[in-house]
Amino acid sequence: MGGCLEEQYLEVLAALHSDAVAAATLCRVFSSRERTEEVAFGLNTVFMLFSAALVFIMHGGFAMLEAGAIRSKNAMNILLQTVLDGAASAVMWYLVGFGFAYGIGDNPNGFIGDALFGLSRYSSHNTGT
């Protein structure tokens, strides 16, 4: 059937008055669109992970900048402060940031998410169960 669901195939066949070749072609187009959406989702995920890695690398660069701008006796304090800042940022992203970025709850407003804080109900939110 060329990548279509049974119902889609029957709808296309009925619309084309049983022209099976045209129906199979349309089904291939439908399935290629689904694959394109999957590739786009994968690329978006890779971009987000790459951007997150760059942000954590920037924490280290900023720590070096701060450590170079102060007396050497205070360098350890600044480096510890930067490590704790990165750890606090990761915890806050887990608790609040993911929900704001990706949580579409009962009242989607198109600007900011209102669900999935602390990744609560993450699996049921994505699978619908």
TrEMBL record:
One of its GO terms (cellular component) is membrane. InterPro entries: Ammonium/urea_transptr (IPR029020), NH4_transpt_AmtB-like_dom (IPR024041). SUPFAM superfamilies: Ammonium transporter. Residues 46-120 form the Ammonium transporter AmtB-like domain. It is found in: Membrane. It holds the Pfam family Ammonium_transp. Keywords: Ammonia transport, Membrane, Transmembrane, Transmembrane helix, Transport. The chain crosses the membrane at residues 39-62, 83-104. Its main location: membrane. It is a multi-pass membrane protein. GO terms for molecular function: ammonium channel activity. Belongs to the ammonia transporter channel (TC 1.A.11.2) family. This is Putative ammonium transporter. The lineage of its organism: Eukaryota, Viridiplantae, Chlorophyta, core chlorophytes, Chlorophyceae.
